[in-house]
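<tokenise_the_fold>
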Amino acid sequence: MRDQLRIAVLIGLSLGCTAGFARPGLSPTPTSATAATATAANNALCAAIEPFYWEIGNKSQRLISGSLGTQADGNPIVASTELDIASAAKWIYGTYIVQIRGGAADLTGNDIQFLSFLSGYTNMGNATTVNCPSTDSPDTVDTCLQRLNPANGLPYDYQNPSTIGAFDYDSGHIENHASLYGGLGSVVYNSLGSIISAQLGPGVGLAYTEPLLAGGIRTDATQYGLVLRHILSGSLSMLAALGTNPVCTLPSTSCPAIYSPIPEAWHYSIAHWVENDPNSNGDGAFSSPGALGFYPWIEAGKKYYGLISRTNNSSANAGYYSAQCGRLIRAAWDTGIEQTGTLPTKTKK
């Protein structure tokens, strides 16, 4: 066993990355580990997002991981590298709400409307660096909601009648839900982490840098991966909520959506995406890419999770770019075939 693991690590290093691999028998195919590592190291869409850390695991443990490139300080991004995860926090909030409700079947109509981004609370935008600054006092969810959007002079808790019932990607849905139905309106930002984490399973400890439930978490891949494992194990009720009540997101003649940051016809479920656009060989994975590049997912069969951890302030599409790389790593893991193109292949070895 030791020799097998040593050989696997050497294979990963020869491909230009540091990598850890699963024990034999824990991957979908005998070549899944090498295919996923090769894809992360060699595919142009993955090279374009370096530096990053990635991993894949199941309900019990991390199975494979790797790190590509180095940051400006010369250090690689690793599992313990803390960074702002932006909209990947939305899935955390959705998981919290499903858990405190008691299960997917216990979500209220308001929960579903708000967490599917149909509520009409679309005056907040998604700029995590300015939504809820620490200069507010008290620095709570409700205080943040009283701030005015400089574009129109209206507060973040303004409900726009023209957007009710249509998907419109905006932090306001979750922030207003947290105040109106999540019981978090009066909570100061530095207490949010302990309240949310207490519902997410053993070992989870998240921190919020501002009272922004849709994007205020600063954490690392170790912590987020633990949440995903708790979901896969069934100890968190989000497992049954994955993909439920999906709504279309890409504005078109057949979809009455207003705005989506994803240029594909994915669907949106309970505070997470469903990657099911057939035009991009969508595999139905559940995910929550953040604007700064952090990208967590659970594959459609609900047996494996994965994530890409990185941060990029220079591109508004960093989360989508991570998703483009991540789904190729996921396809390589699932099929055992290195992904050399821009879209995932579906054929297994």
